[in-house]
Specification:
single chain, 85 residues, mainly alpha, 3 helices, 0% strand, flat
């Protein structure tokens, strides 16, 4: 689990560094900390849920929910929160 948490931390640092280098968004160490804590919570919840539900079913449910949220985000972004330049 610590290896996965290190990946979450590293990914968060990379994203924040890209935000700084590309001058998009706001770079903040608080984002790295909260993303890492959120990753830890997610890993713990996944580990606990995998004791009750088989990992194959759990992975499928997570994938379906992720796809639904992704499509909902795209629809909201395109239809409701239109950005005008």
């Amino acid at each position: 689990m610590w290896g996965l948490l290190l990946i979450v931390f590293g990914f968060s640092v990379v994203v924040e560094t890209l935000q700084f280098v590309l001058a998009i968004g706001t770079t903040d160490i608080t984002d790295v900390v909260t993303n890492t804590v959120g990753g830890l919570v997610g890993l713990v919840v996944y580990r606990l849920a995998s004791k009750i539900i088989s990992t194959k079913i759990l992975d499928g449910v997570i994938t379906v929910i992720g796809l639904i949220l992704f499509v909902a985000f795209l629809l909201l972004r395109g239809l409701v929160f239109q950005v005008r330049y």
